[in-house]
Amino acid sequence: MVPPFRTRFPLDEIARLAPQMVGAVEALASDNPVLVKLGGEIAAIDTALSALSRPGGVPIRTADKDRDRLVRALAKGIDAVTDRIDVPEKQAAAIRVLEALFKDGYGFINEAYGAESTKIAGLLTAAGAPAVKADLATIGQTDCVAAVAAYQHAFLEAEKGRGAVADASPEVTRERHRLADAFHLKLDVYVALAGDMYQGEAKVKEREGLLKPLVDATGRERAREEPKGGAKPPDAPPKSA
Q1: Per-domain residue ranges for the chain?
Q2: The whole model's pTM is what?
Q3: What is the b/e burial string over 116-150, where b = at least 16 CB atoms within 10 angstroms of the residue's CB?
Q4: Least crowded by CB within 10 Å, which of 45, 68, 77, 231?
């Protein structure tokens, strides 16, 4: 039986996986001090790796949190105008915009990076419709939509540059490998804690959510290894990059 996930990944995959693990802890285990501490240690390794990959670049977790804040600000800004009973035309416009852009709320900012990017792209497309655009101008939220678009673009640029090596000197290469080894040690602890602390049916949602980043990363790695002629037989997990 092929295991559901690996516990060893190359550097370019670590660049995607580490922030997703930290995000899972923040979303599902914020009341667990042991996992929160571990998440902070993984985040520190991720930040160090990011600095070596793209010196001067914005860390992907920072870019994600920035776009989250702007989406939240837009939703709250629109919602606030729905209470403007003193200005019926603005209130009506805000209600229409809220329905068009945030019918299901803005909880998607806690989803995986790719899913959130898709939702924000859909939001921006909806915001560009003539009627919605006019209502946004009426309630004074045009600038906030532009800010969401700008920070979404900044996130996509940060994501695109993850894992790109700006300096391939022996010293930097050794440090990247050292950090990768440190990450894998933390990953082993993360897997053990997710299994030990979230046992039983009552905790299945949290356990599966915490391990989902590894399952997704494993899927990406297996897809990348699959030859054109057909699926490659499962093998042992790859060594640390």
Answers
A1: 11-54+168-221, 60-160
A2: 0.56
A3: bbebbeebeeebeeeebeebbebbebeebbebbbe
A4: 231
